[in-house]
Amino acid sequence: MALPPPAYIPKDPGQDRSPIRSQIILIETSPTISQAHEKPLPKTPNRLRTYVPRLPERLRAHLLSPIHTTLYTELELLLLSFFIGMQDATTYPDYHCFASNQTGNTIFLALSALHPGTVKTLFTPPNVSTALGLFLLGGWSTGQLGHRLPASPRTRAWVLATSALQTALVLAAAALQFRVLPTRSEEKEEVALTAGTGAGAGPALGVLALLAFASGSQVVLSRSLKVPEISTAMATAAWVDLIIDPQLFGRGENRPRNRRLWFLGTLLAGGFAGAGVYRYLGSSWSILISGIGKLIVTIMFLFNESEDKGLDDENV
């Protein structure tokens, strides 16, 4: 854009206005660069501020988020399987029944009904009934309450609450076990054979009730985390599903097969570990170690990835 011609102003108003004879002062009609920078900038609307939730709000959102199934979740369930193996390796030698594996208890219950006088040395009917009944009660209560939650049963708060309850029950069983059975190996057998009917019947049934309820609740918890191959307790279905897998010997990625292999391996390793602790330290220590392990897994649930931040389960 062309600038207008400059105006000629004489130094003395009385002098001739001729541009030749007058002293000229050139006045630019456009602002200089410095003047342009000195002008105030136009007002702009205030920028939107990013809202950062406070710590209580972030914690609440974290606890109410569903847990996403990842390798970290599988590791937690494998650890629970290991500690369940330790428990069953302890409860059967002491009480002649299983706290978590209910296949054997179901058969024992049928045998006790038809051969009540010949099975006392093999298993104790009150112990079997207590373990089976409390296992079912623990699974039923955890599962039915989970169905009635306003959110998913995989909600972190629910998983933490049920896992913390299971841990407390196992630790209480360990404390009671120290009272029921002595640590001396020569006294264990005599007490174990009379645990269901003798003087130690009450505390013995209490140990089985606590462990069985916690085991039933734990199996339901593993189902809610969408890892059906790792039940954390029952091995029969895992063995069958493993051997009939059409890609059992395939070299490609086979997540269900790998999960079953790891589950069976950790359950067996837990059985060996429980048997070793039972032999050298006593059954009470085996249950105590199992409870401490469950406490560690409960804390680990705080750090699972949330479902809204993860990938689909099929990609895990």
Which descriptors apply to this entry?
316 residues, mainly alpha, Growth Hormone, Chain: A, 11 helices, globular, disordered C terminus, DUF1275, DUF1275 domain protein
3D structure, described in words:
With 316 residues, the protein is an all-alpha fold. It has a single domain, classed as Growth Hormone, Chain: A (Up-down Bundle), CATH 1.20.1250. 59% of the residues lie in helices and 0% in strands. The protein has eleven helices and no strands. α4 crosses α5 and α9 packs antiparallel against α10. 37% of the residues are buried.
- CATH top level is Mainly Alpha
Number of strands: 0
Q: What pattern of helices and strands is seen along the backbone?
A: HHHHHHHHHHH
> If you compute it from the alpha carbons, what radius of gyration comes out, rounded to the nearest whole angstrom?
38 Å
- Cα end-to-end separation: 66 Å
Helix % is 55-70%
By CATH, the architecture is named Up-down Bundle
Task: Give the total of domains.
Answer: 1
Question: Overall pLDDT, averaged?
Answer: 79
Instruction: State the shape.
Output: globular
Individual helix count: 11
- Unreliable residue runs: 19-30, 184-200, 310-316
CATH T-level fold name: Growth Hormone, Chain: A
- Largest sheet geometry: none
The helix/strand class is mainly alpha
Q: What percent strand?
A: under 5%
Protein name: DUF1275 domain protein
Keywords: Membrane, Transmembrane, Transmembrane helix
InterPro entries: DUF1275
Pfam family, one: DUF1275
